[in-house]
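To the wet lab folks,

You asked to see what we're planning to order before we commit. Fair enough. Below is the target structure as tokens, and below that is the sequence we designed to fit it. If anything looks off to you, flag it before the synthesis order goes out.
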């Protein structure tokens, strides 16, 4: 099973390598390293080499396999960082002349760190935490901007509704996946990939159109009912992408990936949740504007 999340796609490549080598994949190599370490001379004996602890515990190449609890623990840490930094971003956005700068700087920093973490071969916990920090500032500043826009059309509570909707959606998707009501199979994956590719093209075209004033600066999203349907499609795509992430995490755990990979898995979930929140925020704002 593949995933559309670029952060977690590495797991699928490891699974493929494992199958092609008769089981010799990421976990297999970790196992070989563990055996070699166990057979190595003890410290102080002839031929012994210093053993330096790694981040996350264990000896080099002998870290314990990742568990669901590991992923949830790291996700909890990242969530706390995002929430605290979002409060900072919200306050910074209230400063005259600084709000717009904060938004753009945070957006570019989030994209830069996101791509860095996505393509970095060896996961870096400090960089993952840095992504959570800047993405939180970005979300706080963007939320402040949306909230101001919503108040201009007498629509209060927009941000709180978006937060609650994001949390509820996450819970529903986890329930649907866990109970098997929605099957994450090859057909599901192909439909999602096709839909997301089409949505990306439309979103880019909308961005260009917005630069020329289409939809009142919202691009295709601001074109009446069509815009609302497009925004809703974005919410649904982000929501169902969570299922692909859940499946990738399940496979990663089954493969016996090392514990440090829990940072990468948690990072992948965070990327999708940030996307989902922004899609919901935009949809609610357009819905409020349409009531006027």
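Sequence we intend to order:
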């Amino acid at each position: 099973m593949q995933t559309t999340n670029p952060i977690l796609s590495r797991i699928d490549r490891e699974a493929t390598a494992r199958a092609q080598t008769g089981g010799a994949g990421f976990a297999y190599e970790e196992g070989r390293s563990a055996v070699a370490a166990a057979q190595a001379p003890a410290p102080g004996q002839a031929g012994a080499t210093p053993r330096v602890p790694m981040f996350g515990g264990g000896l080099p190449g002998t870290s314990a396999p990742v568990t669901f609890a590991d992923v949830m623990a790291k996700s909890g840490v990242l969530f706390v960082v995002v929430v605290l930094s979002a409060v900072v971003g919200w306050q910074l956005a209230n400063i005259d002349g600084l709000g717009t700068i904060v938004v753009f700087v945070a957006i570019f920093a989030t994209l830069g760190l996101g791509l860095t973490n996505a393509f970095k071969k060896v996961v870096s916990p400090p960089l993952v935490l840095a992504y959570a920090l800047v993405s939180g500032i970005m979300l706080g500043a963007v939320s402040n901007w949306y909230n101001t826009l919503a108040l201009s059309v007498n629509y209060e509570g927009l941000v709180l509704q978006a937060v609650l909707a994001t949390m509820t959606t996450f819970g529903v998707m986890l329930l649907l996946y866990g109970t098997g009501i929605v099957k994450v199979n090859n057909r599901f994956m192909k439909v999602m990939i096709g839909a997301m590719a089409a949505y990306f093209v439309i979103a880019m075209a909308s961005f260009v159109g917005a630069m020329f004033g289409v939809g009142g600066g919202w691009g295709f999203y601001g074109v009446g009912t069509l815009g609302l349907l497009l925004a809703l499609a974005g919410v649904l795509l982000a929501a169902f992408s969570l299922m692909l992430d859940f499946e990738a995490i399940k496979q990663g755990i089954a493969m016996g990936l090392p514990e440090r990979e829990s940072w990468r898995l948690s990072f992948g979930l965070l990327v999708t949740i940030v996307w989902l929140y922004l899609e919901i925020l935009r949809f609610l704002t357009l819905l409020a504007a349409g009531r006027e």
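Structural context that might help your review: The CA atoms of residues 245 and 269 lie 7 Å apart. The radius of gyration is 22 Å.

Thanks,
Computational group
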